[in-house]
Write a structure and sequence with these properties.
CATH architecture: 3-Layer(bba) Sandwich
Order of helices and strands: HHEEEHHEEEHH
Largest sheet: 6 strands, antiparallel
Shape: globular
Strand order of the largest sheet: 1-2-3-4-5-6
CATH class: Alpha Beta
Helix content: 25-40%
Distance between the termini: 42 Å
Low-confidence stretches: 1-20
Number of helices: 6
Number of domains: 1
Mean pLDDT: 89
CATH topology: Chalcone isomerase
Number of strands: 6
Strand content: 25-35%
């Protein structure tokens, strides 16, 4: 009887995913074959969790000229217009685009980003030399065919000048090539 329990326990352990691995959501796998989770972290504001971010990369890891997916899972209810405005503010802080570009990007983001509640997921797909695609809970939300916008938007989290340096470090934790 004891040998059987040990054998069953060993089988159960072997069937578990490896530490650090995560099931790849279908919309991420569709946009990034062989995707793997490179890192994740929580963004807080004055001690309040706003969202958890995950960076998904391909087998060549993270580079600014390769596709990747950044997914945010919101921890609270937020207005979509406020999300767009905060994004534009962060783009300005990292020095992305001109004032005129940021105004256009803000107007576009206001039409894209919906109001969110706890558990809502918004995924952004970086498509090099093409732009970005956005998904809401795994369903296509919008496509933005503007490479400069895409670099500026994802720079909010990944640019060295980001105001969320510890989150950037957590996202890039395991982002090297494999």
């Amino acid at each position: 009887m004891r040998r059987r329990q040990v054998l069953l326990s060993a089988c159960a352990l072997l069937s578990m995913p490896a530490f650090g691995s995560a099931a790849v959501p279908a919309h991420i796998e569709e946009n990034l074959p062989q995707a793997r989770l490179a890192g994740k972290g929580t963004y807080t504001w004055f001690g309040l969790a706003i969202y958890e971010a995950e960076l998904w990369v391909g087998d060549k890891g993270y580079r600014a000229d390769l596709p990747f997916v950044l997914e945010l899972r919101y921890a609270r209810k937020l207005d979509g217009v406020k999300i767009a405005e905060a994004s534009a503010d962060q783009m300005a802080k990292i020095g992305a685009g001109s004032a005129a570009q940021r105004a256009r990007w803000l107007a576009n983001m206001k039409t894209i980003f919906p109001d969110v509640k706890e558990g809502t997921r918004i995924s952004g797909v970086f498509v090099p030399a093409s732009g970005a695609r956005f998904y809401l809970d795994g369903k296509m939300l919008a496509s933005v065919p503007d490479p400069e916008f895409a670099r500026a938007f994802f720079g909010i989290w990944l640019d060295p000048a980001t105001s969320a340096r510890s989150l950037r470090a957590a996202l890039l934790k395991d982002a090297g090539a494999r």
